[in-house]
Amino acid sequence: MRRLPIRLRTSSTPPPHAAALRAAVTVTVTVAAATAAIPSSRRFGGFLGYRDGLGSLQRGLGESLRLPLQQQQRLGFLTAARPLFPSTALNTPHSITTTTTTTTTTTATTTDSDPDTPPHLPRLPYRFDTGIALFAKRPPRPFPPPFLSPPSGSFSDALSTHDRIRDRRVYVDGQLIRGFTNGDDAVLASDRFICVDDGVGAWSTRPRGHAGLWARLILHYWATAVFEDAVRQGEGGKPNPIAYLQRAYEQTVEATSAPNDWQGTTTAAGAQLHYRQAPDRTVEPLLYVTNLGDSQVMVVRPSTRELVFKSTEQWHWFDCPRQLGTNSPDTPATCAVVDEVPIREGDVVLALSDGVIDNLWAHEIVDKVSESVSRWRAGDAAKGRGLTSDDSEMGFVAEELMEAAKVIAMDPFAESPFMEHAIEEGLASEGGKMDDISVVAALCRKN
């Protein structure tokens, strides 16, 4: 749980939002959410700001609201009618630089039928084999209206499914929402794009705060922009990562504006797989890494146990990263950084939330990934783990890395990167940092 930047500490002007949505009907809904503990003053540093009318921090998070919703609650609350990008938007140049906790652990792998990997994309010379591993420090809040799953149509299912954390019957612009939610984090793994969005958990103290929703929506729109432009440009098109994330940010602002008015902020880190022609005229994989905030993308070469690349964290100050959302001055167009990273077949690309990098140093991550790859290929991974035929190499790598970070996070006497950075800032700190831990691991291979 981290601090939330605001434009002006004394400002009473609400952040910019898009125009009100089309005609709506009024329905009565009840928002019920568990009350989260108020973070320490050290974490918040007196820097939290409110818009007028938010009310006291002590107000319960459960309240009855009358929210105007459109007649097509899930299919029409955004501007799906206009194209995602103007015809020239993606061709513009962009800059490229060369306590008590409840836990949930989940692993998953993507397949060709996964909705996060659309089947109609143009074929690339290379692809990702992916796996994810998730650990939530507390159960995520259910998505609020109008971002609810529709009721089940079968007596064999629960009558309402909106409380299923990873239920895919959540619609945005008529599409099933992409990715997975992990506490306040959101992750996505496809055969050409992976990302982690880390929602700032301090929004859980706000009656209308929902960082997990912001993280998931930006992830959904981000991936949608990547895939739609790939289809539009065809196999030889060059990606424009800043335009993708900027558009995702703008659409999330619109989706969470009045009458919905759900507040939150999130970091964003993603890696898009592409290719380029090498000097000897062969084709080699090329990674476009986009980062805003303190989540990270790393490239590990298990064959040499080498860290090939690590993105740079972005901070306003310690424990307050750059972030997209309510009251934040940061935008992708002004703050996001893109790196073009040549990689090789067999490299492992990682998208990590700060739950990993605050608890493990970079060399520990490299060692754990390299060791996990070696164990899997030697056939030792199944020992004591109960793995099945559905498990994958990258799923195993992701889970091993998540477990290593969790061990440190839960150890009050461990030495951790977060503890070291806090001491450098003159703050008393000891042990690991309990946080949502999200890992996406992707193996680059020929398609």
TrEMBL record:
<keyword id="KW-0464">Manganese</keyword>
<dbReference type="InterPro" id="IPR001932">
    <property type="entry name" value="PPM-type_phosphatase-like_dom"/>
</dbReference>
<dbReference type="InterPro" id="IPR036457">
    <property type="entry name" value="PPM-type-like_dom_sf"/>
</dbReference>
<dbReference type="GO" id="GO:0046872">
    <property type="term" value="F:metal ion binding"/>
</dbReference>
<keyword id="KW-0378">Hydrolase</keyword>
<keyword id="KW-0904">Protein phosphatase</keyword>
<dbReference type="GO" id="GO:0004722">
    <property type="term" value="F:protein serine/threonine phosphatase activity"/>
</dbReference>
<protein>
    <recommendedName>
        <fullName>Protein phosphatase</fullName>
        <ecNumber>3.1.3.16</ecNumber>
    </recommendedName>
</protein>
<feature type="region of interest" description="Disordered">
    <location>
        <begin position="88"/>
        <end position="120"/>
    </location>
</feature>
<dbReference type="InterPro" id="IPR039123">
    <property type="entry name" value="PPTC7"/>
</dbReference>
<keyword id="KW-0479">Metal-binding</keyword>
<comment type="similarity">
    <text>Belongs to the PP2C family.</text>
</comment>
<feature type="compositionally biased region" description="Low complexity">
    <location>
        <begin position="97"/>
        <end position="111"/>
    </location>
</feature>
<keyword id="KW-0460">Magnesium</keyword>
<feature type="domain" description="PPM-type phosphatase">
    <location>
        <begin position="167"/>
        <end position="442"/>
    </location>
</feature>
